[in-house]
Amino acid sequence: MRNDRPLLARLNWFWMFQLAGWSTLPLLMWFMQPIGQRDARMMAIAWWGAAFGLLISGVWRHLLKRRISSGERIGWEKMALAVLVLGVIHTAAQTLGYAVIRPMGITTKGLYWLPGALMYWWGVYLVWNVFYMAVQSLRRANHAEAQALRLEVAAKDAELRALQAQVNPHFFFNSMNSVRALIYEDPEAAAQMIDQLASVMRYALQSGHHDTVPLSAEIEAVQAYLAIEKIRFEERMRVSVDIGAGLEQVRIPPMALQTLVENAVKYGVEASATGSEIRIHAQRMDNGGVHIEIANMGVIAPFANSTKVGLMNTRKRLALSLGENAQLDLSEHSGWVRATLTITEAA
């Protein structure tokens, strides 16, 4: 099975540092000894100590990992006791080495050497444990941070899916109402409307799996929706679509423009006896961002709760998908209501 992790992530850093650290002790001893006193048996004793250091610290690390994974708290009292015990064990192992190898010029008579040996190995294991626990604490902190980021991304994705789920039923409910209004008056027009609705439904189902979609796909779905409403409103609805060149791949949340266009139809065309023109305009700004405007003739309805819900939903989805790079504004001027979506960085 292929492992796609980077090489550095696949290396066993613990044993690499173990080998490097314990190998340093005999090398230091070699360079600290006067040239005339550098003896093969003395170096054998040094490497004996390094080998036992690898063994003892490896076993201690295994015990530590088992206790930490079981949730046991390793306080400083336990660590201090462990350092004392490890130092005694290593001193005993080193004494055995002296008895076996018997380096020249070294006497093992008496115990005058014991305090110094204990202090040395206690110091070595104190440094080892401090470094090991510091690295473990850093790893746990990084793991906790990564876990928090994963949870944050999952929460963001769940919220985005919930907001998208709010949009689609609202749109389909209104569309089915339109079909019902035509089915007895003009069956042929109702059939055309169902065909267009099927196209929009297909787009909504496919795009619902993505945080963002290309502007070209969203415009295509919007035009299918407008074709549905054109059958219903006929000459009362006039549509103008102007999409600047090179904007086809700009990323926006799915059904974002659909929500704005639906509001324009409801409060511009449906609310007026003479209907309204709906203008969809997108252009590249001088700073490289994108400006998308949905405009309809009329006024902002002061008690239109569905409009507020739709705008709030769209704003939240923009924030979740594009962050601070997108904003949505609603304004009224000279008899026109304009919903303006500004993307400061083209996605």
Descriptive labels:
rod-shaped; alpha+beta; 5-stranded mixed sheet; Heat Shock Protein 90; two-stranded antiparallel ribbon; 347 residues
Q: Roughly what fraction of the amino acids lie in strands? A: 5-15%
What is the second-level CATH architecture of the largest domain? Answer: 2-Layer Sandwich
Class derived from helix and strand content: alpha+beta
Number of domains: 2
What's the CATH topology name of the largest domain? Heat Shock Protein 90
CATH class of the largest domain: Alpha Beta
Mean pLDDT: 79
Widest sheet: strand ordering: 2-4-5-7-6
Structural account:
By secondary structure, the chain is of the alpha+beta class. A hairpin with a 2-residue loop joins strand 6 (326-333) and strand 7 (336-343). It contains nine helices and seven strands; from the N terminus they run ααααααβαββαββαββ. The protein has helices at residues 7-10, 13-32, 40-69, 76-101, 114-183, 187-207, 215-233, 256-270, 305-322; strands at 213-214, 237-243, 251-252, 276-284, 290-297, 326-333, 336-343.
